[in-house]
């Protein structure tokens, strides 16, 4: 089996090469990004065909620029292994969708030999694009490795994967502070930043939803610098940051989860009083700032399961610098320090008892950067090998079926590849079997339905380590279609494992939450589904026994329903964005869900919780960055944060920022089922909660800010017995976040092997 890209082929091979949870990489180890031994695809434009030599001596600037100038929507520019000497900024400007720049990881190096203070590469106007497997060496002369300078169009859903940045005098990656537009919903996956003044610096308003996962920052002045937007950092290691690992001056809520830090001056500095944050399951060792590893001057902070050790003079590791700062603490350790939080602070510290679960990380030396990841071992090309046309007119059903059959028959991580194009299908494509993938170039590889009305475009059944990647299936931008479902996955109860990565289905901006999209039905205890990146409507029916974990999901609505009482699985979401939707989530039939980083803007309404008699109680645990609705304040059909109808169990909400519109945070409950609602660590920014609940519901406020009467502990929780019960419920909500973290480490970061079909699998508890 071949070896290659995380987020593309993890789960097929080489799963044991990264340390297990709690393992420590020795100080002498200096991991780099992986070497990616790609088989070049038929639609890849090789920069050598433009005259690049990649010998480290010739100036390759003009040749690479010719390749970039010729790129259009859906183009792939390919950098074979080698050293590319560049003497001027490489640029790509214009409204482009689905652009891919791809190299061989640590074996493809762009080396700066231009003027001091230059930028190595700059893009303007890209969206739905990927930059994969390039190493930028500034040689302590270039200022910036990669700059997003958004003057022609708003950039969104841009992925940075397996990139390396070293020896930059300003920043590895930067968004320009004078941008007309911005970069949002971008990811940094398995990227390395070394000896840069700043690793990633995003400086513009609307630089929102930056997600860092599996990265490493070492020997930088500052690792992550957020000046206005917001971010989520998880499973990331920092080492020897001279100023701070994370400098956060964001506009909306952020999170730092399962990160480690060794030898840095500071771990986190938070500076903005309207910004809540969760710092979860982080290990910090050997910080040097005398006032602590963490400085808090923001909105409410949940600090849980973190370990601190080796700081100066037994000083407490956490410093509060803003009067009124709320800090909710649970399960932390301050090894060798006099206390967790420095005495004499002017904030409010609220303690939640330990839950039934613990944090996962045991050492500040735990690192997540993968130096080996699997790539497709064999590529079957639908056009080159099977005669597909991809012109949006010819029927390509037979050719695509033959291509998929070839990859399935070969196994061993083979890929059925659809180059950029529009592929008409008149019948359902079926994905079954094991150890292969189906995918395209990205946003501009599109499946077009011309079959019977109400049909299903792709049907997935009992897959065994199968991927569907970088392909648009029935999404709105592909044109009007009369199919009923874009992708349907079902199961028989046999063990299965499926990954959806870079999949675009119907739902973005369409206000039709029950229409088309990716639908999962009847998945049981032996099913695992991972969604590193999916755009569009998602529906889960009777899948509460399965393990379903989403990394980044964009737009559309989420619908969860079904009356099957077997509910010991996990439905977990990490980065999630919803704008222009009727409702963000429909959680029906008392189902449960965990959502850790949810951003809501310009939505009609928020969350719907529904239940009924005869169903087991559920629990929804939801954290987020922002809650904002758009509409007329006098219109009762918009702006309801939570509509609750006979949902029984617990709803845990917070941290989050309820942002101004509407000023009344509407929470409406109907029905007679018992309900506990927890509002924890929220910032009510120009808003005020207005719960209207019945006698069987109890609302608990804990550590919120913005409304004086609700800033600490709500008035109903003043008596001791009720407070103790409320704290128990809060601990259960934090346990959901712990469980989500366990699943992320286990399934995405090598904490355990994913079983082969037929092998027994331990059930989560």
Q: Which keywords apply here?
A:
765 residues, disordered C terminus, disordered N terminus, Pectate Lyase C-like, 16-stranded parallel β-sheet, 20-stranded parallel β-sheet, globular, 2 domains, mainly beta, 7% helix
Describe this structure in words.
With 765 residues, the chain is mainly beta. The chain has two domains: 46-351, Single-stranded right-handed beta-helix, Pectin lyase-like (Pectate Lyase C-like, 3 Solenoid); 391-627 and 639-654 and 713-748. It contains three helices and 64 strands. Residues 1-28, 711-717 and 752-765 have low confidence and may be disordered.
Topology summary:
Blueprint: E1 44-46, E2 55-59, H1 61-69, E3 76-79, E4 82-86, E5 90-97, E6 100-103, E7 108-112, E8 119-127, E9 130-132, E10 135-137, E11 144-148, E12 155-156, E13 159-161, E14 164-175, E15 183-184, E16 187-189, E17 192-202, E18 210-213, E19 216-218, E20 222-226, E21 231-234, E22 237-239, E23 244-248, E24 254-257, E25 260-262, E26 268-272, E27 277-280, E28 283-285, E29 294-298, E30 301-304, E31 307-309, E32 318-320, E33 326-330, E34 333-335, E35 348-351, E36 379-381, E37 391-395, H2 397-410, E38 414-418, E39 421-425, E40 429-431, E41 434-440, E42 445-449, E43 456-461, E44 464-473, E45 485-490, E46 496-504, E47 518-521, E48 527-535, E49 538-541, E50 547-554, E51 558-561, E52 570-579, E53 585-587, E54 593-603, E55 607-610, E56 618-629, E57 640-645, E58 649-653, E59 656-659, E60 664-670, E61 675-680, E62 682-685, E63 688-692, E64 697-702, H3 720-748
Parallel strand pairs: 1-3, 2-4, 3-6, 4-7, 5-8, 6-9, 7-10, 8-11, 9-13, 10-14, 11-14, 12-15, 13-16, 14-17, 16-18, 17-19, 17-20, 18-21, 19-22, 20-23, 21-24, 22-25, 23-26, 24-27, 25-28, 26-29, 27-30, 28-31, 29-32, 30-33, 31-34, 33-35, 36-38, 37-39, 38-41, 39-42, 40-43, 41-44, 42-44, 43-45, ...
